[in-house]
Amino acid sequence: MFSCPIIRMAAMHRKVSLSFDRFCTTTLSSTWLAVLVFMISVMLLGGIANAARLKVTVDDIHVGPGSIRVALYANDDSFRHEERASRIISTAANSESISVTFNDLPAGQYAVVAYHDANDNKKLDLKLGMFPEEGWGLSNDPTVIGPPRFGPSAFDVANSNTNIVVHLHY
Q: Angle CA(91)–CA(96)–CA(102) in degrees, nearest 5?
């Protein structure tokens, strides 16, 4: 009979009238709608405010055919497996230095692998399955003996703008 939960409880104790129930339903419905709109706005604006931007500058490029591929990784399991990269940006290898920007990133730890895909086959070509035949670089420019690991290349992206430089090695 009464749609307002507060009024229903009061009605059980016979302290309310039907006309007050209509007032309460209308008022509470408007109030709940305003609260809902406010909460959604805060969530949306909070998500935008928490989104970070990462600018990656790739230096020491040997200008020539092909493209520079910049792959962003969010964890050790995906690192160096381009098909599992969080994001990939590819741009022409027409300058000794290029910059790419990853927008709307959640704060967290990331690592970058960049390489000069001279033949545009969308993979880093390896000699004997181990030694890069194309220019390559990692975030933090760690010394690498064996397959590179996520940890030494990892860096933090906060809720703001982050800039890193990756140097290519040929």
A: 40
